[in-house]
Amino acid sequence: MELLLLGLLAALVWKLYQWKRSPHDAPLRSVTLCLFCAALSYPIAMPGGASGVDTVAGHGTAKLIQNVLLLLTVYFLMCFYLYSAADEEAGRRRARREAVLVGVVAVAITVAALSVPHEVFAGSFSTADMTIPQIAFFYGGAGLYLMYALGMAFRWTRQYARMSRRPHSTGLWMTAVGLGAMAVACAIRAVIVAVRSADGDVPHLLMAAVAFLLVASILLFAAGVTYSGARARISSLRLWLQHRRDHRRLSPLWESLPPLMPWATWSSRPKLSTRRRLRTSWPTCGRSATPSLSTTRYSPRRTVGACVPPYVRR
What we know:
It is a single chain. By secondary structure, this protein is mainly alpha-helical. The protein is built from 12 helices and no strands. It is elongated.
């Protein structure tokens, strides 16, 4: 659980940084809110967080809040694809309809949770008494909506992955596999609810396997969402390190230029922006000036000065 929370927090921090740079990006806002709801639901699901919430608001409140946050998580995930559609107006209308649907489901499971005693509603999915209709509806209704939303998101992600190129397609396929695995896990949980509501027995090994599938699929989903951005940042870091090494190799150049150009004003250590522009312009000028050395008389002022950008000439 701690590893899952750390992964979600890392993805959330990255998306918050991107959202700060593009505050009017609706798809990015949807992804950020999706990760925020997912990250907020897990501390509440932990024993310490659940007991604290239940102590303040009553037994079963933490479970209710967690499930509502999960519904909002998949809703914002759907909004990301709807806002990314070619027809933005149609996507916004569909997002409003989906908001009504998720609101109805959230109200329905809340009413079901409040209609039973707190002692009956206490416990986890594996220990809850599914023979009580309200409990079965609470878990079954939330699970069916999660399966629907995750299934739609899986279909849209797969379509985008097929149309994209690497490295973006790699992240999209990772996300699609994670979403598909989560949808399958929710479907299995819905079947488990149906079996247990009929007073049937479910093997504990199956329950543990479904729980592990959920954890692994959520981690894979978070990794897929951040894959493209993280890879781009790593590439930028490599390029920055390469430029830094090139600058250090050109240190003799900065030391030899002042004697060759006494008319220019040089500080003991030129600014980084000046050195960077010189680094990019000097090789080009050197190549263009080299052929003239064999046909004209050599003049340091004329040859070297021609290769110096205008902003350092005086």
